[in-house]
Specification:
Blueprint (H helix, E strand, L loop, with lengths): L1 H17 L25 E3 L3 E4 L2 H12 L4 H15 L9 E7 L5 E6 L36 H12 L4 H4 L1 H9 L1 E2 L2 H14 L3 H7 L11 E2 L2 H13 L1 H6 L1 H13 L5 H6 L3 E3 L2 E7 L2 E7 L6 H12 L10 H21 L10 H4 L2 H8 L10 H4 L31 E6 L5 E7 L56 E5 L2 E6 L6 H14 L5 H6 L3 E2 L7 E4 L4 H9 L4 E4 L9 E4 L6 E4 L7 E4 L1
Parallel strand pairs: 15-16
Antiparallel strand pairs: 1-18, 2-10, 2-19, 3-4, 3-11, 4-7, 5-6, 8-9, 9-12, 10-11, 12-13, 13-17, 14-15, 17-18
Helix pairs in contact: 1-7, 2-3, 3-4, 3-6, 6-9, 13-14, 13-16, 13-18, 14-20
The structure holds 6-diazenyl-5-OXO-L-norleucine.
6-diazenyl-5-OXO-L-norleucine binds next to loops.
């Protein structure tokens, strides 16, 4: 418990520090968490292309590839590998995620490279002999590691939609790892606050401390072992990662250190190309289409369920208490259903069709009181199976046992090219620096096993309750909240978005889209606007402190348990909007940490 609490504070401090200013740069939008007036009011404009990511060096890597003639997916793969070098807390080849692609010719696909459970995984693997949950084992060190998907996912995206070779798009990442890059204030602070975790594992100690000292801003961080691994991937493709030297070294280390990832697990890993979820809305006479994730991400289903519930309501602005009430009540119902039904559809029957059916939304909507917050008991999961053609889903039994919401690290970036191809990628090693282990091959490993239902009825690190549909089984993908999403406006690309933030991803993406679709806000304003989040359990409406006090008071009068935390930001949205009149790419980087939009 003490260790859990220490880790909790380490994560909190990391988050707090990540909000502090980075060095001023062209088109860099950095600010303190409190001083909103410093936030940029306008998006960065580009007539042809735009890359928006959390890190300037990564955004530049994307631009470098676009300038060489690469398309949005070539650039997105380059950004993905570059972030694995320059944003070690979240960028990765030791984790997984989702890349949503829409090509200018209308083709769409969701590259699902979510991590899977090792073959030795089982639903009881984190349960001690006395029946209690060893949640630390699912969060720290070697036993927390699921089979990484990033190398396979990046290769699949490139092969399906790209024009360049892996070796070409890996050039910027290899250069950054080999020659090193200057550590900025943000990374220095993040490494400092994560030192207690990182120094426990020899690979992380070697990589992220220099002779036992912390890196300071301005120091050059070189990662020769990671560079060597990236070079091998450039030569041998993902096959090298999963079946070559990298796989052998990783499996050996796992066997030595008590981890579960085996050579067979790595050889068997497959990224999957899935059909994204789509849903249409007519808002103020404009036809919108949402294109988003399917399971094993819960995000698309939850977001569409919420948007469906909201359909007939008059939404005014996100600083209007009535609007927040509607949205919060919709979120609560979508999250209660997430907790009851969602999991990997290759293993569990999940009523995706029912949950996203407007008739089901009508049933859920009917339980909302326009003026009073429902109790969480009133909200318990509905019966979406009634709207499925085939029966399906979890038990529908909502678990109980609320616990506080927690954060970690993940990263999202968006790319649009001159032809109008677009990529939205969210990937992660789960919490910041994953489980703390850097393998002998130079990359940090995820702690994504905690995203499974490690014990039914027990919340995970984000306070999320999850169902039988998400219990651990060999080869199964852990349920995720990552939600890379695009919007079409009258059939044309209009908005490319996504966020980190665990469950708050779903709220951050939803709210940003609502600002763009319903209120026609300037995209930077849509990103800057105060956010709120309700995940059903714990029963609290978490708000950013920038929400006006009188609005908060009104929500409390209606029975919402509002929790506004001064240091807390919800999400880090890196979005690109298309100006409907000029076609310009409008890069809206989130100033909550230090997103960087670069376009031309
Ligand atoms: O896939 C998920 O839902 C989580 N592993 C995401 C973690 C996350 O976003 C932490 N971020 N800030």
């Amino acid at each position: 418990m003490f260790a859990m609490r220490r880790r909790f504070f380490a994560v909190l401090i990391t988050l707090l520090l990540l909000g502090l200013p980075a060095a001023a740069q062209v088109a860099t939008q950095a600010t303190t968490p409190i001083e909103q007036p410093n936030w940029p009011a306008q998006a960065v404009r580009g007539s042809k292309v735009m890359v928006v990511s959390d890190e300037e060096l990564a955004s530049q890597a994307g631009i470098e590839i676009l300038k060489k003639g690469g398309n949005a997916v070539d650039a997105a793969v380059a950004v993905g590998f570059a972030l694995a070098v320059v944003q070690p807390a979240a960028g990765n080849i030791g984790g997984g995620g989702f890349m949503l692609v829409r090509m200018a010719d209308g083709r769409t696909g969701l590259v699902d490279y979510r991590e899977t459970s090792p073959g030795k995984g089982s639903r009881e693997m984190y349960i001690r002999a006395d029946g209690t949950l060893d949640s630390r084992a699912a969060l720290e060190g070697y036993r927390a590691v699921a089979i990484p998907g990033t190398a396979a996912g990046m290769e699949l995206a490139l092969r399906t939609y790209g024009t360049m070779k892996l070796a070409e798009v890996l050039v910027p990442a290899i250069r950054l790892a080999e020659q090193g890059f200057p550590v900025d204030e943000q990374l220095a602070r993040s490494l400092r606050s994560s030192r207690p975790l990182l120094q426990r594992f020899s690979g992380s100690y070697r990589t992220f401390l220099k002779n036992a000292e912390l890196y300071n801003a301005g120091d050059i961080l070189r990662q020769p072992e990671l560079a060597a691994t990236l070079r091998r991937i450039a030569q041998g493709g993902a096959a090298e990662f999963y079946r070559g030297q990298t796989a052998r070294e990783l499996a050996d280390e796992m066997a030595r250190m008590g981890g579960h990832v085996s050579l067979e697990d790595l050889a068997g890993y497959q990224a999957k190309l899935r059909e994204p979820l789509r849903s249409k809305y007519n808002i103020n006479g404009v036809e919108w289409e949402v294109i988003t994730t399917v399971p094993p991400s819960s995000g698309g289903v939850a977001m569409i369920e919420a948007l469906n519930i909201l359909q007939p309501f008059e939404l005014k602005s996100l600083s209007d208490a009535q609007t927040i009430h509607w949205i919060a009540e919709a979120m609560r119902r979508a999250f209660a259903d997430r907790a009851a039904f969602l999991g990997d559809t290759d293993f569990a029957r999940v009523p995706v069709r029912g949950l996203t059916d407007p008739r089901y939304a009508a049933e859920r909507r009917a339980t909302i009181d326009p003026l009073r917050a429902s109790t969480s008991e009133q909200i318990r999961a509905g019966n979406p199976a009634a709207y499925e053609t085939s029966a399906g889903g979890g038990s529908g039994e909502s678990p109980t046992a609320p616990e506080p919401l927690r954060d970690g690290q993940t990263t999202h970036y968006s790319v649009v090219d001159a032809a109008g191809n677009a990529a939205a990628n969210t990937y992660t090693i789960n919490t910041g620096y994953g489980g703390g282990v850097t393998s002998t091959t130079g990359f940090l490993l995820n702690n994504t096993m905690d995203d499974f239902t490690t014990q039914p009825g027990k919340p995970n690190v984000f306070g999320l309750l999850q169902s039988e549909a998400n219990t651990i089984a060999p080869g199964k993908r852990a349920l995720s909240s990552m939600t890379p999403t695009m919007l079409l406006r009258d059939g044309k690309l209009s908005f490319v978005t996504g966020s980190p933030g665990g469950p708050t991803i779903i709220s951050a993406v939803l709210l940003t889209m609502i600002n763009w679709m319903y209120f026609g806000m300037e995209p930077q304003g849509a990103i800057n606007a105060p956010r709120f989040h309700h995940q059903w359990m714990p029963d609290e409406l978490v708000t950013e402190h920038t929400l006006a006090a009188e609005v908060q008071a009104e929500l409390e009068r209606r029975g919402h348990k509002v929790r506004s935390v001064p240091w807390r930001w919800l999400g880090q949205v890196e979005a690109i909007a298309i100006d409907p009149k000029t076609g310009e790419r409008l890069g809206a980087a989130d100033p909550r940490r230090s997103g960087v939009a670069i376009g031309y």
